[in-house]
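Internal tracking record. Fields below are filled automatically when a chain is submitted to the structure queue. Please do not edit lines marked as system-generated. If the sequence contains nonstandard residues, flag them in the REMARKS field before resubmitting.
Queue: standard
Priority: normal
Entity type: single polypeptide chain
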Amino acid sequence: ESQCPGVKPKLDLIFDAAEELERGLAYNGKMRGRPDPAVLKSDYSSFCKLMSLSAGEFFRVIGLPQRVIDIIGAYWPYQGSDLDTIDASRFILMIAGYFGAGAYIPSKTSHEIANAIEKRARECGCDFIYNRSVVSIGTKNGAVDSVTLSDGTTYRTCAVISNVFPDDVYSKMLDDKSLIPEFELRKAKARQFGFRGFVVYLGLDKSPEELGIKNYNTFLNSTADTTELFRRASSPNILDDCADNVTCTCLNIARPDCSPEGTTHFAITTAFASDAWERITLDRYHAAKRQMAGKLIDRVEKVLGYELRPNIEEIVTASPSTFARYMGTPQGSIYGY
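SYSTEM-GENERATED OUTPUT FOLLOWS
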């Protein structure tokens, strides 16, 4: 409203749309994914219309000024595609969630959430096994029969829920690949991997106040055109191009005690929408990481005016190869498909 006076009624339509989406999704869930077309048409017509739009189309349909679209569109990296490609439903629910419920940072980082889930799951009778990977999923008589770990331990089971990419499950883990439905194979082959992450983690020897850092999150882009930004992120030459699609995060703004007093925890993130890192050979790997990290640091210093380089006490850089190694995801994808 401060940027575009009088726009509030149109912004309210985003929250109205979110309510329609939640109603429609609840009905779809209740019907286990097989809703009655007649009921959808009569009672959930807005839901059906919204599900057919991209985020960009929706914003234009409700008449949002381009200035407001540019502001809201800054969140596009969180969805991993441009506004005219990503579906309106996901973007609307994300925006409504952020602006409606707000965002929270766990006092002990995201690991605290994982610990809480594990604690409650153990109370409900679950077991957890760490430091071993699943190497195969066994089948018998056309159904899942077992799971075998890297230490040779085998567990009998009649079902598996996997958070691993289907590409890996189908190609590396399932013992009888003839059981994979043809549709699932076609779907896996047709999909493209989402963003591959590149992050520079900085430990700075001054406080955020001394460095002039005031915001938890800052998005840096050379244009507000998300289609152009996604095209650049997809370029095989992205490592040689100007650093774009940059997100800066200062954890101290949300958690002042996350680092020792007088210091700052600062991260700079960019993302690749292609496997540009594939052409980095082993002998060039460390130099390429340093070059990309330097480019991101230079961009932040130039645009935001922070003095980062003279105050770097600790620095760690994570490339797509790093994420692939730690998470086991194809090409270091951090966003799924």
